[in-house]
Design brief:
Elements (H helix, E strand, L loop, with lengths): L1 E6 L3 H11 L5 E7 L2 H11 L3 E4 L8 H11 L4 E4 L6 H9 L4 E2 L7 H11 L4 E2 L1 H11 L4 H4 L5 H9 L2 H11 L4 H8 L3 H15 L4 H10 L7
Parallel strand pairs: 1-2, 1-3, 3-4, 4-5, 5-6
């Protein structure tokens, strides 16, 4: 069973989520909170697998909850469930370890699906926010442009060809396969072939996971 904690300031939303998730045979709701402080207390008390988290919580907002989540329950995965489009905060949430973002305007069927996906270790982002999040993650900074002394990162670099690294850079900037093909003067099928090889080498399952992996390990930097 996937143990889910709900955190939202609106009782009607909590009731709706319970109604949607109750029929799911592999999901159980272990608690609910109406504000950020209560959410953290419930995380400690219930040890959930997934916390479905509103961004605009009273007393303590969703981003602050995320900042404290790692020390309260390191294994819990957070799925942000916002009502408003706030891409800067979405990027900050991903940097704080959020595993996904699902807008409240999304179809109800996606709620259980997104919970399952992040419980399995995948990243879930609404299609409209994916490119923005990736581009802002990919903006070089002083902290991520410094050479890494991690041996694993160096091995990852060594096993990637120059062409594969170039494709990773473009993926991390939010380009689609067709756009990559045009920029690199190769066919779209060749891009797909390179991506298949990269997925195998790095052990990732999709282009978003590849982008986030590459960014976190500085593989997206041309230098």
């Amino acid at each position: 069973m996937i143990r889910v904690l709900l955190a939202d300031s609106h009782p009607v939303v909590l009731e709706g989520l319970r109604s949607i998730l109750r029929p799911e045979p592999d999901i159980t709701i272990v608690g609910q909170a109406l504000d950020g402080n209560e959410a953290l207390e419930m995380v400690t008390a219930t040890d959930p697998d997934v916390i479905l988290l509103e961004l605009r919580l009273p007393r303590m907002d969703g981003l602050t909850v995320l900042r404290n989540l790692a020390t309260r329950s390191p294994r819990a995965k957070a799925l942000l469930f916002p009502a408003v489009d706030a891409k800067d905060e979405f990027v900050e949430a991903m940097k704080l370890g959020c595993s996904g973002i699902l807008m409240k305007q999304s179809p109800a069927a996606l709620i259980a699906k997104s919970i399952r996906k992040i419980h399995e270790g995948e990243i879930w982002l609404d299609a409209s926010t994916t490119a923005t999040v990736i581009r802002q993650f990919a903006t070089p900074s002083e902290s991520n442009s410094a050479p890494s002394g991690n041996g694993k990162n160096q091995r990852d670099r060594a096993q990637l060809s120059q062409r594969e690294r170039e494709i990773i850079v473009l993926i991390a900037q939010g380009y689609k396969n067709k756009e990559i093909a045009e920029k690199m003067f190769i066919t779209e099928q060749t891009v797909k072939n390179h991506l298949h090889n990269v997925f195998d080498k790095l052990g990732v399952s999709d282009r978003l996971e590849l982008a986030l992996y590459a960014i976190h390990n500085s593989l997206h930097l041309k230098a």
